[in-house]
Amino acid sequence: MLVLAALLLHAQIDTLAMAEMQKQKIPGLVVMVVEKGKRIHEKAYGVANVETKEPLTTGHLMRIGSTTKMMVAGCLVKLSSQGKLSLNEPIGKYLHDLPAPLQQLTANQLLSHTAGLMDRTLMYGSHDDEALAINVNSLQPDVLFTKPGEVHSYSNLGYAIAGRLIEAVTGKAFADAMKDEIFDHLNMSRSTFRPTLAMTYPLSQGHELKSNEPNVVRPLADHAGYWPAGSAFSSGNDLTNLLQTIADNGPVAKMLSKPIVTTVSGSTYGYGISTETVNGHSLVGHGGARRGYATNILTLPSKGIGVLIMSNLEGVNLVPLTRKIFESVSSLDLTPKPQPHINISIAGTYTQYTTLFTIKDTNGKFTLEQNGKSTELQPAPGPCYSGGTTRACFTLDATGKPKYAHLGSRAFLRRN
């Protein structure tokens, strides 16, 4: 019976994976599943390169996007446990070249996206180790769009600073410190931040859709100044060791997932890890999106279950597939219960970095206007409104008026 059940599970996951590949035109997909310390499903589907038709394997490296943040956070937590820094002390103790306002930030704020920093990521730039210090040391106080500690707003720039902090504390180049402190510790033998090392192993090319067909991304996106935000190369074989660590919920995993801030969606965010409670079950994980690739990790530590999905196509939504596979393995219903809408007046202009949009109120109907495009917004569950692919949620001030609009996980300050 156990063998039959395993075969049925494999067949079910195969069907789900291949259907999603066809639906989203994904060239290659890796699905890894762990349960109570064992890998119960590990399989690659499709090709590593649409031009060569090379079959994808669980050993092929891909860029994993923001799943990288779990490991960057884990490195700082490890260094903190060794007494090499405090997560709550000003980073200016180590990063002396930053402007005074940025020196007052803490690792706690950087890792939990509560530093008040704008979001910025450059995909192309220098490949040299020195680029991280150059990037971070060039920052000015205007990268703070609001008061630190006030709101959760996803910032890749914050993780670039966190990576530079790792360099300052360890005295090593970021990529070397991550190898010594994380990759070697988790037996992730092929994982790296360096493209010239990644290319010596089986490497899946990243893809993008052109004319609704997947094409290889050229040139490969790389900027060492932003490596800590989402540029690790890893494979299904390697990254499942991290998946297992989170699913096992050991001391470091518990510290990473400990809630630091509650997001506008009701989930909590710790250090590089998000926790969502669905029907009484705490789901822990993080997604990743990178030029040419996408990754998603979801775990249920209370049962030791974890699902990892890696894709070599950018812009794909892996959340539905992850949840379907998770439900197949756990036999749990992960459909969130509907929330009532909270009616608020959301008209105003909201900004962050180079993004500005206006929400207008016309006889009680709200329209979001950005870059010459108008989107009519309808009431959605919680303090939210949605239209098309846009979903806007709001954090209120003490008077009950919107102070921040949230598009996805990024906050935008209301200016008027």
In the CATH scheme, the class of the largest domain would be Alpha Beta
Strand content: 25-35%
Q: Might you state the CATH topology name of the largest domain?
A: Beta-lactamase
- In total, the number of domains comes to 2
Q: Please state the structural category.
A: alpha+beta
Tell me the major beta sheet. 8 strands, antiparallel
Instruction: Return the average pLDDT rounded to an integer.
Output: 94
Helical fraction equals: 25-40%
- Gap from first CA to last CA: 64 Å
Strand numbers in spatial order across the main sheet:
2-1-12-11-10-9-8-7
Uncertain regions: pLDDT < 50 for 5+ in a row? none
- Within CATH, the superfamily of the largest domain carries the name DD-peptidase/beta-lactamase superfamily
Task: Count up the helices.
Answer: 12
- What is the CA-based Rg, rounded? 21 Å
What does the model show?
There is one protein chain. The chain is α+β, with helices and mostly antiparallel strands and 416 residues long. It has two domains: 1-335, DD-peptidase/beta-lactamase superfamily (Beta-lactamase); 348-414, no CATH class. 29% of the residues lie in helices and 27% in strands. The strands form four sheets. It has an eight-stranded antiparallel beta sheet, with helices on both faces. It has an eight-stranded antiparallel beta barrel with strand order 13-14-15-16-17-18-19-20. Helix 1 runs antiparallel to helix 12 (319-330) and helix 2 (68-81) runs parallel beside helix 6 (156-170). It is globular, with a radius of gyration of 21 Å.
